[in-house]
Amino acid sequence: MIHEASFMHQFKEGTASMIHVYAMCALAARFSDDSVFHGITRGSRGSIYISEAVRLVQQSIITPSLESMQGLILIGYYYGGEGDGKAKHIYTGLARLHAETLSLWEIPKDGSLLSQEEHRRTWLSVNIASDWSAIDISVEPISLNHGLEVDLLKFDDIAFQSLDPDLVQGTYSSPPSPYNMWAYMARTLGIFNKTSVLLRRMSQGSISFDDYFQEAVVLEGRLDEWEKSLPPNLRYTTENIMSSVNQRLGRTFLAMHIGYHHFRQILFFPFLDARRDHDNIKLTKNASQCKRSANIVSDILRHSTDIENCDLNCFIYGHIAVISSCVHLHTLLFSDNTEALSVARQWLLLNFKYLMGIKSYWPVVEHSVARLRKFHNCCQDSVSDPFVLDNWMARFVTEHTSYPSERQNSAAKPSNPGLESTTVRSICADVHGPHHTRNAETGSEVDDLSHLLHDQQVTSEALVNHALDWLLE
């Protein structure tokens, strides 16, 4: 959205937008190790900067510009990290109004190529932020009149960040193998919107599970088409990860793929419901698809922490990790496959380590982790399947900056009482053996989670309990 070289040049010259400067500081201060922040918790460092950014942007509320739109998006993003979905929606809504007032989709032909590209990317950012913020407050997104013009992105991601702003005039030829990941990511937005709306409607009883199943087939096809449309250099392989790292695009590459697999894991999440017919091959296949994508999400998080300059430290990835963790919990609760249980333990522990690394930066991630504990408690205590897609679960899965209220257990009663004659707690006991109490006590005495992971005497439930206690310290 903002050309880095141009911004840094303007900053050094003292001509950079102060709205941008303060909004960026509000977002970036949490990651700083400067001694000036000593004694200030990372998650609260941005408050003084955001206050000034808000004060400045209010002066341009009725004088829209590219600068104001970009500033409003940054401010909205800050409030998303705070877990203030309403404030986020208001500021992204203002950015949308500014974009519509200026007809931002009509790219100025008299500007430089770089200026035109900033307009395109800002328009794209407004579209994405507008839709996501609507979903965060349980509102169906309203498509902008001119939609997503993702094919209008002229520069690939490498060229956009590396171009000299003083030299970008006249014509420009794209490289033969562009890294146009920003545009590819945007093409999945409509799928996410549709999935979120369908999940909410089914949770409210507006559509049946059979209706959802039919729609899911269509959306799965669209996701498959998106993956097939990727050029060879953008497909998810270890070689391509390292190639993108060499191009300084490792984060963008991993972000594109984790978003894709997150959309898949939430699309197939309803098929984890234990009440469904497990003899139905199609339903079982979709549940497996959910678990496969949750595993890949964990794999991407592993790469983000293991590979330098690939860190995914924004709050949205914390939400994605929490949903992936719920899927792994399902395996630990309901699977009797030794290999699947072992894999789920490893991925769940990796997710928890990742969440431990970023929760101090973003208040909303810390709250998401607390919700994960509540969900786990529900898994242990509920007399019905905790994976039933009630309204609470639909919001839990789709809203990454909201604070849903407490879940009502009565909302998820099994449709066929004979189908579930035992509680989930007893299922856990059956799967993990009779030594839960002793192993839980053992787990509580062991601080090294890696040791716990490989200790075959520690049950999965004990491991999860210990890891959650550690995560919530």
Automatic annotation (TrEMBL):
Top-rank taxon: Eukaryota
One Gene Ontology MF term? DNA binding
Q: Which residues form the Xylanolytic transcriptional activator regulatory domain?
A: 2-227
GO cellular component terms, semicolon-separated: nucleus
Query: Is-annotated flag, keyword Nucleus?
Result: yes
What keywords would UniProt list here? Metal-binding, Nucleus, Transcription, Transcription regulation
Record's protein name = Xylanolytic transcriptional activator regulatory domain-containing protein
**Per the UniProt entry, what species is this protein from, by scientific name?**
Penicillium flavigenum
